[in-house]
Design goal:
alpha+beta, 60s Ribosomal Protein L30, Chain: A, 6 strands, 2 helices, two-stranded antiparallel sheet
């Protein structure tokens, strides 16, 4: 099992949301999970036009990908999030504030880089999240 510690040095200031500044990892293997979008197992978009529904599906897909490799959200060391609309930043922060305490019950939220992009692979997708995990 990986040794994962989360750090928020006071000199960097408090994170602006449900994430941490640094993850320190000692691991034998890493998982790099491609950016997940809001698709079901048939590849169909879930929650077209509904940001919260898409967030739920994206993180469900991440959990499925992790489980397929014998891992859980506790193994996550970093997220990279892509949003299509800057107006969705507040919705994303609200989703994380509401859901991450359940997903990361220990309160150790992985670092997250948030980027606003022109579009994703299909116009109906509003969010994509890439994940790095340690085993």
């Amino acid at each position: 099992m990986a040794e994962i510690t989360i750090h928020n040095p006071p000199s960097l200031g408090k994170p602006l949301g449900q994430y941490s500044q640094i993850t320190r990892v000692k691991a034998s293997e890493f998982l790099f999970i491609a950016g997940q979008v809001a698709t079901d197992k048939e590849g169909k978009c879930v929650g077209s036009g509904d940001f919260d529904v898409q967030c739920g599906q994206v993180f469900a897909n991440i959990e499925i990908a992790l489980a397929s490799q014998g891992a859980t959200l506790a193994n996550v060391v970093e997220f990279t999030t892509y949003l299509v609309h800057s107006q969705d930043i507040a919705r994303f922060m609200a989703y994380r504030l509401r859901e991450f305490p359940r997903m990361f019950a220990n309160g150790r939220f992985p670092p997250n880089t948030l980027l606003i992009v022109d579009r994703l692979v299909q116009e109906s997708f509003l969010i994509e999240v890439a994940t790095v995990a340690a085993l």
